[in-house]
Specification:
mainly alpha; Arc Repressor Mutant, subunit A; Tetracycline Repressor, domain 2; about 75% helix; elongated
């Protein structure tokens, strides 16, 4: 029995990995289940043995990756580091995820998080949870005086994720350099820009 379960898991993973490549290459709406079957090298009917539709595949691919982001964000919150270090951990996780698996990250950005009227709305609670984790980090930084208090923490969270999404889009559409050194530099600049904008402003007495 265990061999069959392992074999089923491997076959399911094979199909999901093929779906990533097809979605990234053709776009979710422009591909068919038969395209995924051909990419995976399996029979068309076998795909439907494991998945009801290509929609289910996309949902699972997003949820798998996003759950890892949530876990990384929660771990950063528990780490005891500074607010800047926590934000750097989250930004680093996302950028390193793109570095390791650009096709999957392309699918998530283009087909889910930007699809406000379909997949994006379906996964809004999960997306909101990631934003909430960053909001907590900013709010904690404001409470301890690391960040200025006149910037709404939820707004800062939106800016943080908006900047990351635009950065990933630049790599996806090849409009900004995307070599290894570029990833590390972008990570540093992104966190520096966000934290500099949140830094307390000098008062008249200290200016």
């Amino acid at each position: 029995m265990s061999v069959r379960r392992d074999g089923a898991a491997d076959k399911r993973r094979l199909i999901l990995d093929a779906a990533i490549r097809v979605f990234a290459r053709q776009g979710f709406h422009n591909c068919r289940v038969s395209d995924i079957a051909a990419e995976a090298g399996v029979a068309y009917g076998l795909v439907y043995h494991y998945f009801d539709s290509k929609d289910q595949m996309l949902n699972e691919l997003f949820s798998e990756r996003w759950s890892l982001l949530i876990a990384a964000s929660e771990e950063a919150q528990r780490s005891g580091g500074t607010p800047r270090e926590k934000l750097a951990t989250i930004a680093g996780f996302i950028i390193d995820s793109y570095r390791r698996d650009p096709e999957l990250m392309k699918v998530i950005i283009v087909e889910v998080t930007r699809a406000a009227n379909s997949f994006g709305r379906t996964h809004l609670p999960e997306i909101r949870q990631a934003y909430d984790e960053v909001e907590k980090i900013v709010a904690d930084g404001q409470a301890e005086g690391t960040f200025r208090e006149d910037v709404d923490a939820a707004f800062a969270s939106m800016l943080f994720y908006g900047a990351i999404e635009q950065l990933l889009s630049g790599w996806i559409f090849e409009i900004v350099p995307g070599e290894d050194g570029d990833f590390d530099r972008a990570k540093e600049l992104l966190v520096e820009t966000i934290c500099a904008g949140l830094a307390p402003r000098p008062t008249a007495a200290t200016a």
